[in-house]
TrEMBL record:
Gene that encodes it: solA
Cofactor(s) it depends on: FAD
Its EC number(s): 1.5.3.2
Keywords: FAD, Flavoprotein, Oxidoreductase
InterPro entries found in the cross-reference section: FAD-dep_OxRdtase (IPR006076), FAD/NAD-bd_sf (IPR036188), MTOX (IPR045170)
Domain FAD dependent oxidoreductase: 6-371
Protein's UniProt name: N-methyl-L-tryptophan oxidase
Amino acid sequence: MQGYEAVVVGLGATGSAAVYQLAQAGVRVLGIDRLAPPHTYGSSHGDTRITRLAIGEGDVYVPFVRRSHELWREIEVDSGAGLLHQVGGVVISPVAGGAAMHGSDDFFSATVDIARRHGVDHEVLDAGQLADRFPQFGVGAEHAGYFEPDAGFVMAEAAVRAQLDLAVRHGAQLRRDERVLDVLPSGDGVVVRTDRGRYGAGTAVLAAGPWLPELIDPDLGGLFTVYRQVVNWFAGDLADGSFEPDRCPVFIWQFGPGEEDVCYGFPAIDGPGGGVKVGTEHYGSPVTPDTVRREVLPSEVEQTYHRCVAGRLPALRAAAVRSVSCLYTVTPDFGFVVDRHPLHHGVIVASPCSGHGFKHSAAVGESIAQLVTTGTSTLDLSPFALGRLTSPAGGSGSGGRR
Ligand SMILES: Cc1cc2nc3c(=O)[nH]c(=O)nc-3n(C[C@H](O)[C@H](O)[C@H](O)COP(=O)(O)OP(=O)(O)OC[C@H]3O[C@@H](n4cnc5c(N)ncnc54)[C@H](O)[C@@H]3O)c2cc1C
């Protein structure tokens, strides 16, 4: 049995960052993935992810996105990949506020408050200012806007690929198309058993995204619910360049009070023929990654167009150039879990998803590496402790939001 200081299970946004940071720190590390990342079956595909510095999901996340931006710039230099595009970002919301997102009851107000508290450069715009500044959005008088010039997007698959390449350059071993069956405590560490072998390690990092529930004990697995999401690249009359990255920010548009009353989108990064990527959020029926329907039906494209796009993005048509489904792994309070397993010290459970994890993933990977090498991390991981969800006051079976 081969021995490592650390084994990272799952090499999506989280695992690729962790394996890279561990290798860079000189740790003898093995990364294993059941598929060949970057792939289209987990949570880290679809070209782009929004990043923003004022994190309406909570103050605790701000240091992670700030550090991630620094790390992506370093990774860009080391890998030659273009990853972080700070084209600006706008949150559009009903003036009265009170629209929920990712567990925040009033995401717009929380975003503005957090920008103020953390000194994030921003402007609050009324409907007229929004319409003047961003004519590609069909805003009504009932909307207000938050604009952040340093927000933008990260190239998702490119970031995973760059970190995996750099990990190998720093001495990591990667095993693709190998499935981890279980991780068992052994002495001071763990044994990772796969469909092809067994590996001993001091620490195993479980970064299995939507497959996490099947890798950990059912009690903990029950804290993570997986939901299918759909994104479409809508065709449109884009020849005027109003959706080009130099004129169009990333956007989050809240049009009602509920968690699902939202869409978000990106500039047309592939030119007028590539369409405009628009995503929605669904928390209806839980799914599993092995049984979920992957293809997107024409009726889903049509529904999204009529519910989210029509009237709001007048240049777009009810036809998708491309559509993909993707998976959110959601905790009861929409927060991350990055913590040691309560019973097995050699296992770190890493689920920074709940639909908003990519922007923080580079720094989460660094924090995991620090946890492995020093037992603690520079950035505060305590808000992501499992105990908040498993204690009597937590979300597990005790009235958490979801
Ligand atoms: C549609 C969509 C839009 C999003 N938009 C944003 C956004 O705009 N901004 C933002 O910040 N975040 C966003 N997110 C969230 C973000 O993308 C996720 O937080 C992040 O990608 C999670 O990555 P992960 O590495 O935890 O999971 P994954 O990418 O799913 O990686 C898990 C990996 O584990 C592997 N694996 C699973 N089981 C095993 C096993 N038994 N053995 C070996 N390997 C295994 C899988 O093959 C996979 O490669 C979005 C997510 C989705 C789905």
